[in-house]
């Protein structure tokens, strides 16, 4: 019997340093997130980062936490409930990090007689620290505990026509509330090194981005190319003026160079260039979370206005909106009935 496993990133159990610390430990000790030798990762994560970050992150989580829990978890649960109500297949939700594990979700599916699973990493773009780590972890759990289950993975959908339509229409609806001078597409950043590592040709990806317009097999796994592609496709769908749209990368950790331009520098640059009214979209995330609600909707607004900007609007992620739920159900049914996956 077929079933569906939706996987998002995960959150701490509560916005306290006590619960944030083990969550960050699991997250940052992932070799696809901090990709250095294990001894150095232990030194960096446990010896340095976890000494101070849990308190700072807990404060940030406290600002956005809902009565029902972490926005990312609550939204993912609402999405799952809606998807479940529109398909006959069993649908389970797991998280890559934290207590809602992938193992528990697979156990739930197995309990319902499922032996063929469609794995849906809830990320539009491929990055080794997001999409890839979900796939690798799920395969590890499958091999160790559920050898009878066969897994098929939904490809990254960053350029799928139907996804671009749903995303563009959500953006168009958000843009009605602001007489914008500029629209910033802010994607979660990754260290520059990661896109080199994900390049199967070992020579295509250039750190300056000059490679991303040339067609290459490397783009199947080039996060930066895929982000720019999403921006271009939305721009074309909505017929947005070229000079009013740009892309940037947020949420970097100190240390190595990350993908540029950096979102926080862009807020300042755009305001200083005289852009008064700014709309910000965050398409690397399908659900609102710490990185969109705190870093972009709260901190970003302050940064933009302090630098001279006036109106500022963060357009929400797709969350549990009906068009997004319906598209996911369509992909699930295509796989269920025709073994077809979205391209
Ligand atoms: C080396 C560090 C990190 C990489 C690489 C990274 C990539 C990456 N992350 C997301 C999506 C999310 N990240 C979120 C939070 C978050 N991310 C990092 C670090 C890296 N992410 C940290 C330390 C945190 C925790 C919060 C903090 O201390 O700042 C979230 C939000 C989680 C939530 O509970 O709301 C998401 C979602 C992607 C898509 C990605 C690669 C493309
Ligand atoms: Fe992250
Ligand atoms: Fe590229």
UniProtKB/TrEMBL annotation:
Keyword Metal-binding: yes
Positions in coiled-coil regions: none
Positions bound to Fe(2+): 188, 291
The UniProt record lists the keyword Acetylation: no
E.C. code: 4.98.1.1
Pfam families per the UniProt record, alphabetical: Ferrochelatase
Gene Ontology molecular function, alphabetical: ferrochelatase activity; metal ion binding
UniProt keyword annotations, A-Z: Cytoplasm, Heme biosynthesis, Iron, Lyase, Metal-binding, Porphyrin biosynthesis
Pathway where this protein functions: Porphyrin-containing compound metabolism; protoheme biosynthesis; protoheme from protoporphyrin-IX: step 1/1
Class of enzymatic activity (EC top level): lyase
Localization per Swiss-Prot or TrEMBL: Cytoplasm
Record Gene3D superfamilies: 3.40.50.1400
GO cellular component: cytoplasm
Catalysis: reaction(s): Fe-coproporphyrin III + 2 H(+) = coproporphyrin III + Fe(2+); heme b + 2 H(+) = protoporphyrin IX + Fe(2+)
GO biological process: heme biosynthetic process
Function per UniProt: Catalyzes the ferrous insertion into protoporphyrin IX.
UniProt record similarity statement: Belongs to the ferrochelatase family.
Protein name: Ferrochelatase
Organism listed in the record: Poritiphilus flavus
């Amino acid at each position: 019997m077929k079933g569906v496993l939706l996987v998002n990133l995960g959150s701490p159990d509560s916005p306290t340093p006590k619960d944030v610390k083990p969550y960050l430990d699991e997250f940052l000790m992932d070799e696809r997130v901090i990709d250095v030798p294990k001894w150095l990762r232990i030194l960096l994560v446990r010896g340095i980062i976890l000494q101070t970050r849990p308190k700072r992150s807990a404060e940030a989580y406290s600002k956005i936490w809902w009565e029902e829990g972490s926005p990312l978890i609550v939204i993912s649960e609402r999405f799952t409930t809606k998807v479940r109500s529109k398909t006959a297949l069993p649908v389970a939700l797991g998280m890559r990090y934290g207590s809602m594990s992938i193992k528990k979700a697979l156990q739930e599916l197995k309990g319902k007689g499922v032996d063929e699973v469609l794995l849906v990493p809830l990320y539009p773009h491929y990055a080794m620290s997001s999409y890839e780590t979900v796939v690798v972890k799920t395969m590890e759990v499958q091999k160790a505990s559920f050898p009878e289950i066969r897994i098929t993975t939904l490809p990254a959908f960053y350029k799928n026509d139907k996804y671009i339509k749903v995303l563009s229409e959500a953006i168009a609806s958000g843009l009605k509330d602001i007489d914008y001078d500029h629209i910033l597409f802010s994607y979660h950043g990754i260290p520059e090194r990661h896109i080199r590592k994900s390049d199967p040709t070992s020579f295509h990806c250039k750190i300056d981005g000059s490679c991303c317009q040339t067609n290459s097999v490397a783009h199947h796994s080039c996060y930066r190319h895929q982000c720019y592609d999403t921006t271009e496709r939305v721009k074309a769908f909505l017929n947005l003026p070229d000079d009013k749209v740009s892309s940037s990368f947020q949420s970097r950790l100190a240390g190595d160079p990350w993908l540029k331009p950096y979102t926080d520098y862009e807020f300042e640059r755009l305001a200083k260039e005289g852009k008064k009214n700014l709309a910000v979209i965050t398409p690397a995330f399908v659900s609102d979370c710490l990185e969109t609600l705190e870093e972009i909707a709260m901190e970003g607004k302050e940064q933009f206005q302090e630098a001279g900007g006036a109106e500022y609007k963060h357009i929400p992620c797709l969350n549990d909106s009906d068009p997004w739920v319906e598209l996911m159900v369509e992909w699930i049914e295509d796989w269920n009935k025709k073994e077809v996956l979205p391209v």
